[in-house]
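Figure 2 data, in text form.
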Amino acid sequence: MNLPFTPEQFLSVFAYYNLTVWPAQVFLNLLALTAIALAIRPSSSSSRVIAGILAFLWLWTGLAYHIAFFADINPAAKLFGAFNVLQGMVFLTYGVVRAKLTFGFRPDARGIVGALLILYALVIYPVLGHSFGHAYPRSPTFGLPCPTTIFTFGILLWTVGKVPKTILVIPFLWSLIGFSAALTMGIYEDVGLLVSGVFGTGLIITRPFPDPTRRDALKP
């Protein structure tokens, strides 16, 4: 893939972003931890709050990274930013306004895979990045597109009931686009991005649902 910037320019954008927005990274990680806690101990309003957090993360990624920083070296970043903002609005519409998303951790296969993706996004991703030579601030921190996308798939695997396919389109496409570009730039920790997009989407859309006409399926 031919990109209009060099690996050095790419890493320099991360450094400029991280140093400029600090300590926003702390706040973004706290939002992620809040979403995790609410999914593990759900309440009547927790699903709307989690969806609102996902919406904020995608809006942040689109506006505070793609458009405000990445666009300096990549003309396509404004388009990426627009799609990230659109994804934020999708979460607001389906998760907050319409309440079509219900989150709640279950210790089944999908719940465990979701937990692993969340752990990867928040902990393993930066550790791997450091081992690959991407030390802070020249590294993609949480709140930037790739770790945020991995986290999104992880938390969506903690949903109860169907997830509207509209919600999955942009994260899935970014898992392909972002991975191919990042691999060219040597961001090898983004292998998790491709894994989350392919397997996360597959597990979400193939989740079995109980037959509502069967009485035993209606039991808690």
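Caption note: DSSP finds eight helices and no strands in the chain.
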